[in-house]
Amino acid sequence: MALGFSGSNGGISKDQDNASLNRLDLLNRPMEISYFVNNVCNLSCSHCYVGYEEPKNSLSVEEWKGVFDGCLDLGALTFGNVGKEPLLSWSKTKALLDFFALKRKQNPRIRFGLVTNAILFDDKKIEELAESSPTYMDISLDGTEEVHDSIRGKGNYQATLGNIRKISERFPELAEKIFISYTLMQPNKDIGIIKGLIDEIRASGVRNILISPYVKSINGRGTLGITNQEVVEAYKKLIEVGNEFVRKDGQLLLKSDYETQKPLIDLLVKEGVIDLSRLLIDDYGTIFNRYENVFVNYIPLPETMTRAIRFSHDGFVGGCYDMFFTDYQSRARGNVRTTNLKDILKESNPLQN
After folding, report:
1. Mind listing the pLDDT tens digit for each residue in 249-289?
2. How far apart are CA 149 and CA 43, in angstroms?
3. pLDDT digits (tens, 9 = 90+) for 34-61
């Protein structure tokens, strides 16, 4: 599993403009929906942000469709199945991918995808995934083989990479939609490790990588933490050399999060990694600086319950950070099984109409 707020959402769209006031309305609409189709995983990673399992009371496919219809009515455009491991609930995941594929025919701007460790893919699942044609797929890899397996378990690197190669060989157009999700932490902060991984995935037909800094949580284990200054130095180096790694038609996304990493965002501005005078915004409300094919996101204000909403597997509505905790139900703003989403949003965000 990868951290939901670090998801690629399909990357930066081609429609980019100066971050002018007439486009900032995109920050106060529920543009981005992430959801847990389940709360179980086949791995036990050292850095897992949701290091507990609570599989009971999952929403049915029909309940999810009703929730998502409500989101679409409110203007949502991006939908990400962020976990815990979607392939463990493949029939439900596939049904929801097909639902969004149908909605995309009605509105081509709709984006949808999933976050996965990709270990449980087989030929049938890959074929069915290609049929649904998601906009993007985030696959978790945290370094070259030795480093990745030290974090996620022995043999997992080859299992994940093997399935990426299968996807690339059978459906190259699907491989082009893959973003490698890389959590930057102490064992893998060296630029040489990042370059080594990019070289390997590029040979497998993958052209995009997302890097997000490790957020220390109550569930994380080991000494994985990385300082804000170390993140800044890594990002500076990646801006300097990243375009040598990434294909011209690919994206290297360098991310951070407001709710859990506001001091990091401030430091990125102070150190000149983020230049407030030349911010851009795309038509999905993502604000960023662009350095050719390297993109650094900037978040000026909290997004939870304004631009970004997360649903737990059992219908609770909140933010990404809320799901770090076993008491996420009490942290939630409401539950869509008992309260209309629009009413939950009105209560949480008075600016919502």
Report:
1. 899 999 999 988 999 999 999 999 999 999 999 989 899 99
2. 11
3. 999 999 999 988 888 887 888 889 999 9
Q: Which domains does the chain have, with CATH numbers?
A: 4-348 (3.20.20.70)
Q: Could you tell me how far CA 179 lies from the centroid of its own chain? A: 9
pLDDT of residue 245: 80
Output the CA torsion 348→304→315→130 (10° steps). 150
CB atoms within 10 A of CB 131: 12
Alpha carbon distance 111, 103 (integer Å) = 10
Low-confidence ranges of the chain (pLDDT < 50): 1-4, 350, 353
pLDDT at 85: 96
User: Does residue 71 contact residue 30 with C-beta atoms inside 8 Å?
Assistant: yes
How is residue 203 written in tokens? Answer: 């040979």
Q: How many CB atoms lie within 10 A of CB 115?
A: 27
The string over 62-81, giving b where at least 16 C-beta atoms fall within 10 Å of a residue's C-beta and e elsewhere, is eebbebbebbbebebbbbbb
- Tokens representing 195? 């370059």
The amino acid at residue 288 is F
Give me the pLDDT at residue 1, please.
40
- The answer to whether the beta carbons of residues 297 and 287 sit under 8 Å apart is yes
**Amino acid 21: pLDDT:** 57
Alpha-carbon distances of 135 from 48, 87, 209, rounded to whole Å = 25, 17, 15
Structure tokens at 54: 């609570």
- Are 174 and 135 contacting, i.e. CB atoms less than 8 angstroms apart? no
- CA 45/CA 49 separation, integer angstroms: 9
Chain center to CA of 245:
21
* Secondary structure (H, E, C), 103-116: HHHHCCCCEEEEEE
- Give residue 19's pLDDT: 77
| CA–CA gap between residue 101 and residue 107 (Å, rounded) | 10
Residues of the chain above pLDDT 90, percent: 74
| Cα distances (Å, whole numbers) of residue 220 to 3, 12, 39, 108, 234 | 12, 29, 17, 39, 22
* Identity at 336, one-letter amino acid code: V
CA 210 to CA 137: how far, in whole Å? 11
The number of helices, as runs of H, and strands, as runs of E, in the chain is 11, 14
